[in-house]
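Why does residue order matter? Because the sequence determines the fold. Keep that principle in mind as you read this record.
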Amino acid sequence: AWGAFQDLDGNHLANFRITSGQVDWGSGGNTGGKSCSVVVPDISSKLAKQLRGREALYLGKVYQQVTEPTLGVIDVPVIVGRLDTAPNDGSSVTLTFRGKGALLAHSFGAPVKYGKGRKKTDVIRDIATTHGGEAATKLRVVDRPEVLAKDVTYKATDSMWLEMVSLAHSMDLILFDDADGILVCRPMNDSPVQTMKTGPGGWLTSPI
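Structure:
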């Protein structure tokens, strides 16, 4: 497996090699659910020194190499996440990333009002872009006709992520950040397009 550092706009900065690690898909909640810890060689502690105190400036994208019978070896993106910590043990550094939904998990910071009749999907888009700082090109939100039944005012301390999840659930939609760091809001897919193998050598449980 391997990974790449990105800035907060998703621009590529540098690649890194992974010797071990794990992904925790979580259960959603107020941090976007997913997290990932990977071990990267860092014998001289150069990487750890460069990152120390600047973790919040970087995203990490982790790839898993898998073998598919018809496609051969392919690099499958596993997670795009914000770098939280980078401790070093002298020969390696452990990078911990939280799913990109973590960037939207903080509070509004000031009261925000949306008027009666505003489409709920438009509110989700506006929260993510206007108040969460997400680029419109990083959203894939389906368009739905449901609207707010009354004026809604979010408090300064309300979590943007939780309020977006609540809006999505009220329309029987799911909200998540995918493995490419795109914020997705859509119905649950009841028609699988790919069956993943599990167990040793499988796509879901093979080690990074």
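The mean pLDDT is 84.
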